[in-house]
Amino acid sequence: MALTVAVTGPTGEIGTSVVRALEADERVARVLGMARRPFDPAARGWRKTEYRQGDILDRGAVDALVGAADVVVHLAYVILGTREESRRVNLDGTRNVFEATAAAERPGRLVYTSSVAAYGYHADNPAPLTEDVPVRGSSEHYYSAQKAACERLLAETTEGLDVYVLRPCIVAGPDATVLLRNLPWEQAAPYVPEPLRRALGLVPGLRPVIPDPGVRFQLVHHDDVASAVVAAAAGDGPPGAYNLAADDEITMADFARAVGAYAVPVPSELVGVASALVDALPLVPAKAEWIHAVRHPMIMDTGRARRALGWTPRHTAHEALTTMTTR
Ligand SMILES: NC(=O)c1ccc[n+]([C@@H]2O[C@H](COP(=O)([O-])OP(=O)(O)OC[C@H]3O[C@@H](n4cnc5c(N)ncnc54)[C@H](OP(=O)(O)O)[C@@H]3O)[C@@H](O)[C@H]2O)c1
């Protein structure tokens, strides 16, 4: 088996690790990486990888990419953007990738990185979440709603393909700092009314303080997501959905310590109030919607990835956090 793997989004926080892992896997002969902005594979030490300039909104570019591959890995996505930009790229662009892959003769396998957010932030979510829990999304958070919509789209568009859906929790590590740069509290702070901001510790002058509603989080290192993507790309286990997270969990207090802040316990009801306000207020930028992500614990069971895909995370959540903040 000498696979040609097409990757959309090869320069992202996950994409960079994925290409590195594909480069290192002897079952992979060639990697075709498509992004809008140019990159030089040789400058990154990549020898099997070729750059393809293209936008997933351009069906012709997508057809040309996937038509030359045995396996398609779809990573390109807008995580932090406006509702409109994210809708176009994430829904229209993803539809292009799914439909083009299904229509092309050569590829037999599609790997798509969904997210824990696809389950939606619901009070009645089981703990832990297994892959059998329906992906309902949360309509008040664009990213969650789009992740759930993309999974429904997969079911509609990819008949005949072996489809692997990976659902990572928040990804961290030296090459993945989105959590650090975009803590939900930071994004939501300007849109929460002043008295509530004070109660939540969101006043810039009072930093570094991070409110801790007691919700626990999972993290996964980008290299561990990459090893799952490679296992799926090589067909190491049956097609299907796989949750991805490290073994341990972190608290807001752990996070605060890692970023040199300190955590102040706040009642979890306050997060619910802030979340309801962000949902109710008109003209709230999409980024503020990330506050919904912390209103309920979202702990996933990762047994299926271990048993069926042979996946073992090499890094703990604490390591992922520490390496993210000490880079
Ligand atoms: N990071 C996390 O914590 C996390 C957690 C769970 C799931 N995920 C999922 O994992 C996937 C990859 O995430 P990431 O963190 O690597 O994202 P990222 O760092 O934002 O990278 C996005 C990549 O997609 C490319 N891209 C964006 N729009 C494009 C377009 N219209 N056409 C072609 N390429 C485009 C970007 O390159 P150009 O801008 O140059 O085009 C870049 O290579 C996403 O589906 C994300 O939702 C991420």
TrEMBL record:
Residues 5-245 form the NAD-dependent epimerase/dehydratase domain. It comes from the Bacteria. Pfam families: Epimerase. This is NAD-dependent epimerase/dehydratase family protein. It comes from Actinomadura yumaensis.
